[in-house]
Amino acid sequence: xxxxxxxxxxxxxxxxxxxxxxxxxxxxxxxxxxxxxxxxxxxxxxxxxxxxxxxxxxxxxxxxxxxxxxxxxxxxxxxxxxxxxxxxxxxxxxxxxxxxxxxxxxxxxxxxxxxxxxxxxxxxxxxxxxxxxxxxxxxxxxxxxxxxxxxxxxxxxxxxxxxxxxxxxxxxxxxxxxxxxxxxxxxxxxxxxxxxxxxx
Length: 200
Known about the structure:
Layout: H1 13-21, H2 25-34, H3 43-50, E1 54-60, E2 66-72, E3 79-82, E4 85-91, H4 98-105, E5 108-115, E6 120-131, H5 135-141, E7 149-161, H6 174-199
Antiparallel strand pairs: 1-2, 1-5, 3-4, 4-7, 5-6, 6-7
């Protein structure tokens, strides 16, 4: 990519013109000077990535036709392989292979992660590639996943950004809630048993 600073991957000249026309360019410029975007993960962001059970991967054809694919799995299905690389096992799906075809001719990609419970999100610009000839890598990436892993996808980060929680609905994972309810019910049963013993 030809960006001179990490944020230029998102803030193209056309984007900067739109920001200027709408009165936000100076504020954006000051913000990126105070807090420059990075292409390297922090330990906190790496932890955020590995705790996710859902991800959205954006790709585009050579002609620029965009496509968003959802990928999910248990927490840990996204692997931080180093400070610039995220990997995951690509599981068998509906056999449309749109992402696969797009990456075959245009490696530029976008990864969007959101934690609805804490209303947090992270955005990653970069390039992705498909790996089909590394059984050891695929074995590592499919650890803990359910389904048949067909290939590995590696995402190399060019820039990342975390911005405000505005308009993100606060939602709680159903499995987490079920576990909390089960724990509460077990505690209630324990207390009821103690009460029954005391009243006998």
